[in-house]
Amino acid sequence: MKPYVIGVDIGGTKIAIGLVDEAGRVIGQHVLPTHLDNSPSVMVQQIAERIDDLLLAAEVTLEQVRGIGVGAPGPLDVKKGVFLCPPNLPTWHNYPLLEDLQSRYSVPVLIENDANAATLAEKWVGAARTNDHFIYLTISTGIGAGLYLNGNLISSIRENAGEVGHIVIDPARGRCICGQLGCLEWIASGTAIARRGSELLGRIVSTEEVFSLYRSGHPKLVALVEETFTYIGMGCVTLINLFSPERIIIGGGVSNVGNALFEAVRSYVQGCALNPSGRTTAIVPSEVGAWAGVVGAAAVVWQRGEDVRDASVSR
């Protein structure tokens, strides 16, 4: 009996690790900062130490673990388990994560795009349990999306579909780290909100501080945040016009600003989606919340069932 999976969610600012059971419950967790001045091998060693700590604290042996699932930002080579060139993890370019983790553990290791993993979490235990046509949009350090259409998670032959953070919204807003002008991620991610807020105030502020000042009515930051909501609405309308989902689920740290974001995006969608049916698309918050990436990474393992070991070897 192997009733547990380790889920790892690697992000540009933090790495979340959790022990997840068959019902999608996180029964133990650790979070560590992503130190870009550390080499990937050092960070993976720290991940392994936290995994060992979790198992020890939960009194779970490795023999009770079905596998380790990892959600990571793209672009990825999912089959080989190699980071290619994720913009928010520049020191991880071409790093063979699968090979590293598999050398440390005897259980299967599977790697998936982080937004795809969170999409599976929402389908499993979140806001899309009854939906077969939805999009999960994560807005955090970066912006990405998972596409779940006609009952299937969409990947594409090159396995990197859903990089909606790099659709162009406003070229006048400057050059994104990907090389294009005015990408959605460059102007509406958590990183962008902090950068733009710092420019307006003439001092370094975090995304959380920008939102705090927005709530208190700071005129410059009210304008900035409302403009950001409009940009996110533009991104959602683009997704609706392209894929006609039943709903868009918004997660990631920026979604924690609350109902103001969802009201603004719904209003924009109602006014601007091309198809009348698209204007009624549900725009809802994640129900899995901050642990969507961890639960989703675990779901990658759970959904492969008894074939997980063969899958990890073939990938």
TrEMBL record:
Q: Which GO terms describe its molecular function?
A: kinase activity
Name the UniProt record assigns to this protein: Glucokinase
> Family assignment?
Belongs to the ROK (NagC/XylR) family.
- Keywords, alphabetical: Kinase, Transferase
What single Pfam family name could you report for this chain, choosing any that match? ROK
The source's domain of life comes to Bacteria
